[in-house]
Amino acid sequence: MIKNLFSRLLQGLVVLFVLFTLTFFLVKAMPGGPFQSEKAIPAHIKAKIEAYYGLDQPDWVQYYKQLGHFLAGDPGFSLRLEGRPVTQIISQAFPVSFQLGVVAMSIALLIGIPTGCIAAAKKNGLLDVGSMAFAMVGVCLPSFVIGPLLAETFGRSLKWFPAMVWDASSPQTWLLPAITLGLGTAAYVSRLTRAGMIETLSQDFVRTARAKGVPGWKILIRHCLRGGLIPAVAFIGPAFAGIVSGSVVIESIFQIPGLGRHFIKAIETQDAPVILASVLLYGSLVILANLFTDIAGVWLNPRLRSGKN
Description:
Elements: H1 2-29, H2 43-53, H3 59-71, H4 86-121, H5 126-140, H6 143-157, H7 172-201, H8 204-211, H9 216-228, H10 230-245, H11 248-253, H12 259-269, H13 272-300, H14 302-305
Helix pairs in contact: 1-13, 4-5, 4-7, 4-10, 4-13, 5-7, 6-7, 7-9, 7-10, 10-13, 12-13
């Protein structure tokens, strides 16, 4: 187990190196430059600015310098927001995106797991068909459709929740964006939970428990839930990373000061230090989420602990 985790961490480091390299040269391949604007900058001033940031050097020299800065834990300064360290931008914006992702994933699990369990327990019944139809709607409707509908209905029309305000200490401002982000994930979690529970409910030990007169709810929760959640758990890790890194549209709709907005602006202005730092941060989140998913899968499945398939 420890050897496997160490191997996954080494693979993660290689992935981050490849991400850094590809992102750096893709940014360099973009047309234009970070200091192009509607108002033309005199050539001699532009040359001094580029020399100050080292942009007048060959790409491979810039690459090794930038790589050295990142390995030292100092991504440098933003080219768009002059004078602001990239670490300051990340430290202020990422906690907002992360908090939104945690709330959205919590909503997804609170909806998806019970729905999947009920659907499996009532297989081919009305509750099963209805819940899976609801899940299919959640899968098909993108967040950029759900978000404006929720903001218009519950924010502007009914005025139940603030539509375009974010306050880290006020749960009312979290709810609409978190539901928007979490509904699609809830749909996938419910379908995976249903599939895992149906497979577990068909095992011999379940039939034995029923023959002994064990109540159905106890069989479902105490005997089947742990094994039935294995497919959903395998999905939850990458899904959480996807929620955090894919909240750009939601942050724009609900005016949330998260990292996604800085990332989009950085791409528009070719702010390489912010782009590289954001990509590495999101990549690290995906790697860690997958690692925790593997650990949870081993805990849920004793055969993995013993090395058996």
